[in-house]
Amino acid sequence: MRAEKRRQLERAGWAIGDAGDFLELSAEERRFVDVKLALADGLRRRRERLGLTQSAMADRLGSSQSRVAKMEAAHRSVSTDLLLKSLFRLGASPADVARLLTTKARTYAA
Amino acid sequence: MRAEKRRQLERAGWAIGDAGDFLELSAEERRFVDVKLALADGLRRRRERLGLTQSAMADRLGSSQSRVAKMEAAHRSVSTDLLLKSLFRLGASPADVARLLTTKARTYAA
DNA sequence: TGTGCGTATGTCAGATCAGACATAGAATGG
DNA sequence: CCATTCTATGTCTGATCTGACATACGCACA
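Predict the joint structure of the above. Result:
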């Protein structure tokens, strides 16, 4: 469970030390990452629900396929600004976003 | 009501055209601004609840007074990343953030 | 009036993020 | 096996954000 989540974080480019357990992340960093993962996940589900490929979605967002892939991976090079703007462009409301935060966040809480 | 909200946005540096009514903002832009205003407001209330000045809070956040002022004004030079990280550093949880979004967002909805 | 304290605004150099492109990997169908 | 299609990763250049500093504003209260 923890190992799997750690893998997910590392794939997202968080470069958590090999020796250093990812619990080195401070509470606020963990929460921030939680939020990003929740938004990223919501974005992917929304795209799939719309039956779009990453490229199609990139067009719709005025972005590129590679950036969409990174958004969905919650890569550290994507900001929450980008995630939020993308969600909103796909029709999400602030309430939808709030729901993502409450239902998805803290999945890998220590 | 609308005029007041517009003033708030302009103070925040959104430079909405004089002629162009702020309704020119697209739906997703409005939602994004809503979210920023909600987070900014939550941050200010949290600071006041803690009885901190902007300078004291800046120290705690590792930032500067001017930046805190801009955060609270939801100035366009501050990202939601910064707002979220700041809220979390002050002890907020993702659920708290979600609450901010549902109770505060869409205040000036058309 | 002027002094002090808190807040707001303008600007800048360095840091981070954006979209784009190339390319690699994974999965499916022939 | 090879194509095709979709997704993932690395890297570049220009754009945006960050903390800091200076300075202005607002409001008390002597």
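The CA atoms of residues 48 and 54 of chain A lie 9 Å apart.
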